[in-house]
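Input structure tokens:
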């Protein structure tokens, strides 16, 4: 288990902002213990330019980041997923593909920075807030002793992470 690389998929509807940010953060912070991917149920087909600008500003490698369908990860030959995190409420409410290997899932919904309106500064702040919230959740996830937690406890901890500061109502469990 110590040599196992955990595959993590961040899901959103458009796969242009939040899920891409999650992928970039985990690939850097995971230090080879985790391999992150992102996808969308209805991908935009391109990464939001503000997402790329934000990630470059935090010195992330944006090479290879692209907007893609979650169907890529349900096909034969796709990476076996250990964890799937939805980061938007739309994707959480949709019927997901059947993931081979039955990965642990959790909803970590945060507001969509791509939907932000206002001045350039206000929109930039929405992207920075999304980055900050995802970064914090990923730090909490990485601190979990994965090889020491049983599945029920791990599922509860993953759900709790999704309810941390900035969570959408669905992630907090306020909507049924």
């Amino acid at each position: 288990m110590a040599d196992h690389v955990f595959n993590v998929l961040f899901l959103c509807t458009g796969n242009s902002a939040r899920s891409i940010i999650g992928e970039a953060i985990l690939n850097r912070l995971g230090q080879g213990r985790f391999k992150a991917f992102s996808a969308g149920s209805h991908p935009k087909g391109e990464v939001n330019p503000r997402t790329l600008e934000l990630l470059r500003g935090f010195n992330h490698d944006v090479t290879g980041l692209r907007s893609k369908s979650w169907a890529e990860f349900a096909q034969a030959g796709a990476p076996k997923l250990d964890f799937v995190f939805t980061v938007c409420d739309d994707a959480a409410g949709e019927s997901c593909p059947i993931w081979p290997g039955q990965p642990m899932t959790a909803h970590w919904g945060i507001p969509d920075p791509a939907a932000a309106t206002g001045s350039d500064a206000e929109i930039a702040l929405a992207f920075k807030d999304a980055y900050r919230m995802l970064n914090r959740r990923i730090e909490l996830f990485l601190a979990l002793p994965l090889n020491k937690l049983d599945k029920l406890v791990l599922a509860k901890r993953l759900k709790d992470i999704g309810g941390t500061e900035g969570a959408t109502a669905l992630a907090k469990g306020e909507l049924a």
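The first strand starts at residue 6 and ends at 12. The chain has one domain: 6-166.
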